[in-house]
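User: Fold this; tokens only.

Assistant: Input:
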Amino acid sequence: MPDISPDNYSFLLNEIGFLLQEGRRKAFAAVNSILVETYWHVGRNIVEYEQKGTEKAEYGSRLLKELSKDLKIRFGKGFSRSNLQYMRLLYINYPKCQTLSGKLSWSHYTELLSISDDLARSFYEKQCINEKWSIRELKRQRNTGLFERIALSKDKQGVIELAGKGQIIEKASDVVKDPYVFEFLNIPQQQKYSEQELEKRLVDNLGRFLLELGKGFAFINSQYRITLDNTHYYVDLVFYHRILKCFVLIDLKLGKVKHHDIGQMNLYLNYFKHEENTEDDNEPIGIVLATDKNEILVKYATGSITNQLFVSRYQLYLPDKKLLEEELRYLLSVEAETSAGD
């Protein structure tokens, strides 16, 4: 028997390993897609049964209770009353089976179906597909009120487009949020911390930080040194945005943003534009992140600046989702009244 070549054998083993992993991934995706489609048909049967009689299969109804008991006897777990209600809601909210995405699992759909607002549900569905969110990532973005945080910076038509397409990155303002939420750092609200500690924690939790920043960000470095007239300056965090093809500079500030913080960022942007950009790079984006800001000060401090410079807030705790939802409803109602008046 000939000797086995270590190099050739290692290559063979890696090739087989890749094939098996890819096959399992495709098999899991196929099974998951079939499961979602099957549950859609179950939901349709429940709704059609309701329409023939007077029984409404709301959670806790006699129909779902009986179905749950009998299906568990025949088919085992997976048929609780709540799960049957989600199957029913799946059919009601997606009356055409073809509109279901093969990229989303049943767990994704149960999370999405628990969102009562149609606009918010549509947004999170599109973002799950576009950014390949896991269930954990979807839950986190819901808990931080991502839809409302982005939507509050738009008009009514912009909110509708956001819900229908997800967040489309086309210009600098599309990558900026206000506020940013850093609850994953687990820093108590009253605890004192320095800018250096905040920066270190963000870098140590880079995966979660990138999720909060959004699609397209690639980390370059922290404390990026700039030297001018024999003086060293340091940009807290430097990223490159793959979609917009530009550098994104972030400076962290404690407390309320000051006018000189904005001037400092403008200096960084001018330096990057002339010294760091290559021929294929677009103009850099600068974001000054502080715990508070005065809108009038920001307006006057950025008034004559031609660079893409933004000032946003950050917070170390989850936002009040109900308050965000109320603000968005108010915005949409004002837009509707204004449109009617015109």
